[in-house]
Design brief:
- This protein is mostly helical.
- Helix content is 81%, strand content 0%.
- It has helices at residues 2-52, 57-63, 69-83, 87-98, 104-118, 120-131, 136-167, 178-199, 202-223, 238-241, 244-258, 261-266, 268-273, 282-292, 295-304, 307-330, 332-348, 350-368.
- Helix 5 (104-118) crosses helix 16.
- The relative contact order is 0.14.
């Protein structure tokens, strides 16, 4: 009897542990299924956008006045503001390029604009934290830092990328398997897209494709594991995260895993608020995130099997990598002091902050009409 009485708590604990493991396994399976479904919806959305955009050329050129790279830069910038994300805008840009509604230079500029607009989400999250009673200065500082780093790296990368496109040296870099992959997905999704095109106008199919694209990104965000900073490995890594190289790699890795620079940069706010990432070390984090953010866009270019689309995305990745590496290797400390000094100036003088906010919204509007 004594043995059985001693065994009873052990058996109960084992039963509880087994149920917990089963629930965890089911939760992981659900997340895996949601991730697979989100990727399927992403591919379907690309095909819908591609077919739906075939008649959007006059609308893009005439109604939206996108007739040169400057217009395209402003449109991509504003579009990313509207949807609070750059990835959907970049995917739509590639489909417009694929059907001939945009030139390679315009597509390149529009994707750059989408990245400039996507970084605004960090400042938006910072405002939310400030309204919730968190440290106002720290919350807004992280958002401003993300915006300034993105703007001061992507703008020179835009000029460098246009120069690289004009040389044509990246045209030789292509993936031979792209056509085979696209043929497989054509067989899977083409019947459904053709069915929609039979009953609906192309512009409606394009709108539905945009909706499916947004749903796919939302589902992918929900499928990703939640990071609880207090209970995770981050709680013991504060000193390691103070190293710029580590935060650079962390920003790149988080963006690869989430396939969303908006999400990876948004994590900066709670990380900095809890002291895991110091303000100065957020700079290399943003740089790393801005490089690997093109992973999902690169996948979209491969699925479209368009050599020009692949070249445009590749040039984006190469140009922003070169600019970031030059800053880190040659004059990082002076760059860090300049950015942090500008952030402090904007926070100390409300008038300058208002002027800055006005400029980042007025510029893309002005570009739209140049």
């Amino acid at each position: 009897m004594k043995i059985s009485e001693e065994q009873e708590p052990t058996l109960a604990q084992t039963s509880t542990l087994t149920r917990w493991v089963e629930r965890l396994r089911l939760q992981q399976l659900r997340k895996l299924g949601m991730a697979i479904l989100s990727l399927g919806l992403f591919i379907l959305a690309l095909f819908m956008l591609k077919e739906g955009s075939r008649q959007l050329g006059p609308f893009v050129r005439e109604s939206l006045s996108v007739t040169n790279p400057v217009n395209a830069l402003g449109f991509g910038w504003l579009f990313a503001y509207a949807v609070m994300s750059g990835s959907p805008v970049a995917a739509i840009t590639l489909t417009l390029l694929d059907v001939g509604s945009l030139s390679s230079y315009e597509a390149y500029a529009m994707i750059t604009g989408s990245r400039l607009g996507a970084s605004f989400i960090v400042l938006f999250i910072g405002f939310i934290y400030a309204l919730r009673g968190k440290e106002k200065r720290a919350s807004l500082a992280t958002g401003l830092l993300s915006l300034l780093v993105t703007q001061t790296t992507y703008i020179p990368a835009l000029i460098l990328g246009i120069a690289l496109l004009s040389t044509g040296w990246t045209d030789q870099v292509q993936l031979d398997t792209a056509a085979q992959v696209t043929t497989l997905f054509d067989r899977l999704f083409e019947p459904l897209v053709n069915f929609l095109l039979y009953y609906l106008p192309r512009w409606v199919v394009f709108g539905l494709g945009f909706g499916v694209l947004m749903v796919s990104f939302t589902m992918l965000d929900k499928a990703l594991p939640k990071i609880h900073l207090e209970d995770s490995a981050f709680s013991g890594m504060a000193r390691i995260l103070y190293r710029p190289v580590v935060t650079f790699l962390l920003g790149a890795l988080v963006t690869v895993l989430t396939m969303s620079v908006s999400l990876s940069l948004s994590i900066l706010v709670p990380l900095s608020m809890r002291g895991y990432v110091r303000q100065e070390n957020a700079i290399p984090y943003v740089m790393g995130a801005n490089i690997t953010t093109f992973i999902d866009t690169l996948i979209a270019a491969i699925l479209l099997a368009n050599p020009l689309a692949f070249t445009v995305v590749l040039v984006n990745m190469v140009s922003i990598t070169l600019v970031s590496m030059l800053i880190i290797l040659l004059f990082y400390r002076s760059y860090e002091r300049s950015v942090l000094g500008l952030v402090n100036t904007l926070l100390q003088h409300r008038r300058w902050l208002i002027v800055y906010m006005f400029v980042i919204f007025a510029l893309p509007l002005i570009f739209m009409f140049l």
